[in-house]
Write a structure and sequence with these properties.
The relative contact order is 0.18. By secondary structure, the chain is an alpha/beta fold. Mean pLDDT is about 85; it is low at about 1-10. β3 (about 95-100) and β4 form a beta hairpin. It has helices at about 15-35, 40-50, 65-75, 90-95, 130, 135-140, 175-180, 190-200, 205-210, 215-225, 235-245, 255-270, 280-290, 300-305, and strands spanning about 55, 80-85, 95-100, 105-110, 115-120, 140-145, 150, 155-160, 180-185. The longest helix has 17 residues, at about 15-35. The strands form three sheets. Strands 2-5-8-1-9 form a five-stranded parallel beta sheet. Strands 3-4 form a two-stranded antiparallel ribbon.
Length: about 300
């Protein structure tokens, strides 16, 4: 923790004991699937409860898709997976109006985006036009086809994976779409001990098939509502504004949408930690994951910015 954090003597959790137990069980099962990555799994749950979308960026084969699939199984939400390719069209994601010979009318055939959790696998392998088809859905929870708007199921959560841009056949996500992701996370290589356990255990496909939902959709929606009730003091508001100001020195800084995203992520993180108020620790825990991709920074560079701001 950065020095100067205000001390608070009372802790009054918003969550019930049952909710706390379920959060702990959720993280325990997720950490059983993705070994030695407790920070990333906690941030992934934070992203879900904050109502944001998450982007996993890493080399192939390091567990991005396994983590995304595990999140879908444990949340108990409807789940669809799209394997993006360079010939995929926007209609393959959203859906298309088709002419019904019997009724002599056009009918809208929903695409896989009409689910509560959409796993967008290797999203940067499709063309920018297809990538942009997700923008309205990620921001507003609607899609538009031929001038008609269709509401998506709620909660709606995009869990996307992308490969590094130096790999062939990848397209950089536009800044406008990167900004729609609340967090960007990276798993990295597992430790030697974790990799040894992976060699001894059953395959991840077998373990995935054994996962049982921890939450119901109603419980997820209830926790999302409680996130908004987590208190943000004036001191924490000033801290967020100071962080935004330091990103705006001699560079394209954090947008207002980015500040709001940082606030919401800190509230969700505090809720997971069983607090009804946001502390500087919560802001610092989510800062790099929320800010780095918006400013085209590495995690280390984002952490260096964080160190420049003291907590009053």
């Amino acid at each position: 923790m950065i020095w100067g954090t205000q001390k608070t003597t009372t802790i009054q959790p918003l969550t019930t004991k049952l909710q706390q137990q379920k959060i702990a069980e959720f993280l325990q099962q997720l950490n059983h699937m993705i070994l030695d990555k407790s920070k990333q799994t906690q941030l992934a749950l934070t992203c879900l409860l904050a109502g944001g979308h998450v982007l996993f960026e890493d080399l192939p084969g390091l567990g991005k898709t396994t983590l995304a699939s595990s999140l879908a199984h444990l949340t108990g939400l409807d789940f669809q997976r799209i394997q993006f390719t360079n010939d995929m069209l926007a209609s393959d994601v959203i859906g298309i109006n088709m002419f019904n010979q019997k009724t002599q009318q056009f009918e809208f055939k929903q695409g896989p985006i009409f689910s509560q959790i959409l796993l967008a696998d290797e999203i940067n392998r499709c063309s920018p036009k297809t990538q942009s088809a997700l923008l309205e859905a990620m921001e507003e929870g609607y899609v538009s086809v031929d001038g008609v708007r269709y509401a998506l199921p709620q909660p709606f959560w995009v869990v996307a994976t992308q490969n590094p841009l130096f790999q062939s056949g990848t397209y950089a996500l536009p800044e406008s779409q990167l900004d729609r992701f609340l967090m960007r996370l990276s798993l990295g290589y597992p430790s030697r001990q974790a990799e040894g356990l992976l060699l001894q255990q059953s395959t991840r496909q077998v373990l995935l098939s054994q996962l049982q939902a921890v939450f119901s959709p109603e419980e997820i929606l209830a926790l999302k509502t409680q996130v908004d009730e987590v208190h943000l003091s004036q001191a924490m508001i000033e801290y967020l504004l100071d962080l935004a100001a330091v990103t705006r020195k001699n560079r394209q800084g954090l947008s207002t949408r980015g500040i709001l995203a940082l606030k919401k992520a800190a509230q969700a993180y505090a809720l997971i930690c069983q607090r009804d108020f946001v502390s500087a620790d919560d802001v610092q825990a989510v800062f790099s994951a929320v800010v780095a991709h918006r400013l085209n920074l590495s995690e280390a560079q984002a952490e260096a910015l964080l160190q420049q701001v003291k907590v009053s």
